[in-house]
Amino acid sequence: MEPKSARRGQQIVRSGIPATSEPHDFAADDRGSTPLPLQLLHTRTSPAQATMPIPNPANTTHDTPELDCIDFSGKTVYGDFRDDIVRDGFAVVKNALSPERAQHYVQEIHQWLEDFGLGYKRDDPSTIKEECLPIIHQKGLLQAYGIPHESFTWGVRSEPGVIGVFEKLFNTEDLLVSFDAVNVSLPNRRDLPPVKPWAHQDQDPLRPGFRCIQGFVNLNPCGDNDGGLMVLKGGHLVSKEYHEAFKNEEQEFRWTNEMYLFKDTGLKWLEEKGLEWVKVNCGPGDLVLWDSRAPHYNVAPTGDMARFVVYTAYAPVSTATKEDLIQKKWLFENTKGHSHWPQGFQPFVEQFIAPKRNGELDPHNNWTPRQKPVLSERAFKLTGIPYLEAMS
């Protein structure tokens, strides 16, 4: 089944994409000197939303179409990971890349950490502390230091087995990928505050329906004690009902409207529905997917295994607007990141995510990848740039 086309903006063409015989050399690309027009760097609000009061207004991304590539009625049996998404709201796709490839990326991440020259050594647990590392959020998120466009990050995004899952899901090869973060949750971080449950969903409550699949590629073994994703099993199916019940609830500040934090009253409501939290275990090279309507959060490792994952979300090009593609081009060429939505995204707000060391901006962060990727033709299409050029 072909995904629905975008409901607004210019239709994206699917043919006439310029082909290249050589990989796109990101490292040699110096076209990223002209920023987007100011209006494209600010938030975008649809006419329908302009009349909707949002407490403590966040940056507002534009609406995205509902997707019809999965039948959530339960009448269709797929015989694969899609059945799990329909029933549970999440799925583990085994061996999207081989354990050997996963280990290759694990070593590249260790090398990246060591190359800061701060003292971290992959075989010395005593160096797992802030003074020896880049600044890593207590939840393991790395969004700065150019990591959204680091060579190993794009390597994972470019893996055929990962892309193939999303091609099957959306029934198209014309895809965009998000320029999202990497999670590096090292074990035994006694210098960080404990990670408390922070149940949330990454979809605007005012926009119900199936609109986005989130994902990450897991690189190390991830068992009960190795940190990872917690998902409320079946929570995606009651999302619309939940938000109708809590539509008058006040919300604290959110950096984007595509973020909703559950309060205790809401969690109690979900518990009374008989829904339970599940820790998602997975192996090296597994791809974990979840519906953006599903309540979820992550937990830190309590054992000795590091959690390394690369967030990977893809969407059909047909669901993007021309403005999305213009902005993605600028973000790509200037090595900037954005939220997990491949389209209708919120660029990372650097004033919020800029890492600080001893109260000052970390001098080790220059927002530039240390090793810029050289992209294959297939990977370069995921940026959206060839589709934009074909529209000219």
Automatic annotation (TrEMBL):
- Pfam families per record: PhyH
Among InterPro entries, the record links this protein to: Phytyl_CoA_dOase-like
Which species?
A: Rhodotorula toruloides (Yeast)
Return the PANTHER family for the record.
PHYTANOYL-COA DIOXYGENASE, PHYTANOYL-COA DIOXYGENASE-RELATED-RELATED
Protein name stated in the entry = Phytanoyl-CoA dioxygenase
Give the span(s) annotated as Disordered: 1-31
Basic and acidic residues: compositionally biased ranges: 22-31
Its organism's taxonomic lineage begins at:
Eukaryota, Fungi, Dikarya, Basidiomycota, Pucciniomycotina
